[in-house]
Amino acid sequence: MNFSTDGLVIREQRIKEGDKVITILTRDKGVIRSFVNGANNIKSPKTTATGLITYSQFDIYLNSKGNYIIDDAHAKEVFMPLRQDIDKMALSQYFCELCEQFAPRDANAEEILRLTLNSLYMLAHNKLPIELIKCIFELRLMSVSGYMPDLVGCCECHIYEDDNMYFLPDSGQLICKSCKTENTGRSILTGKTVTNVMRHCVYSELNKLFSFTLSEKSTKTLGVVTENYCTLHLDKHLNTLDFYKQIRNLSE
Ligand SMILES: [Zn+2]
């Protein structure tokens, strides 16, 4: 069986001289692993196109052992600015690991692929602060991966706005100050601004997703919400997140 698809390389593992296995977030089949033979010829377009964080067009076939093999590949976007900045590279690798965790297998992953490509583009071209791009990606990824939080209003009295609105990461709901009790459980004070930004991240059209600005203080609060909500649904610790935080601490 042969097929063509476009996709983003989210993991690259060398297995022996010239051969490697790559994990690709494809448009048509979600996350797949595929062998690449003869990947050390630096002049071959296939070598560039199968590198980590490269968006490419792939021709793939299934061999008799049931393994995917890259027949041919051509890079469409290599995100060069990300490779020249260690903070951005670290965040991109975290995005890739999140995709590997949350994107479907053997199913269409168009929405997650578009979100990831858009986020990498924003990151590469300094369109928004790096911390804010991280928040937007985390919350939107959860929303399109089956964990959409319910941010319409307080989960008890349904009030839409409150100066003291709280997010409940365990249930993905909001609760206002009047309804919150000591039995409410883990909560993060989000207030009006951050609550509205969270709504934007979850409910807006993809082409408007990155069209806003936010103060540094509110971005910090949003970051607590999105990282907590994201890691809560992971079944393992992500080393790429630790690495990103170490790099950010060093550069502050
Ligand atoms: Zn309430």
SSE topology:
Blueprint lengths: L1 E15 L2 E8 L3 E7 L8 H5 L5 E8 L5 E10 L2 H4 L2 H17 L7 H15 L5 H15 L5 E5 L10 E4 L4 E4 L11 E2 L1 H13 L12 H17 L6 H13 L1
Parallel strand pairs: 3-5, 6-8
Antiparallel strand pairs: 1-2, 1-4, 2-3, 4-5, 7-8, 7-9
The structure holds zinc ion (ZN).
Write out the CATH superfamily name of the largest domain.
Recombination protein O, C-terminal domain
Can you tell me the CATH class of the largest domain?
Mainly Alpha
Helix-residue proportion: 25-40%
Q: What oligomeric arrangement do these chains adopt?
A: single chain
Which strands sit side by side, in order, in the main sheet? 1-2-3-5-4
Shape: elongated
Number of strands: 9
Round the mean pLDDT to the nearest integer and report it: 95
The whole-angstrom Rg is 20 Å
Number of domains: 2
CATH fold name of the largest domain, please? de novo design (two linked rop proteins)
The structure class reads alpha+beta
Number of helices: 8
Which hetero ligands occur in this complex? zinc ion
What proportion of the residues form beta strands (DSSP E)?
A: 25-35%
Distance between the termini: 51 Å
- SSE pattern, N- to C-terminal: EEEHEEHHHHEEEEHHH
Task: Describe the main β-sheet briefly.
Answer: 5 strands, mixed, barrel
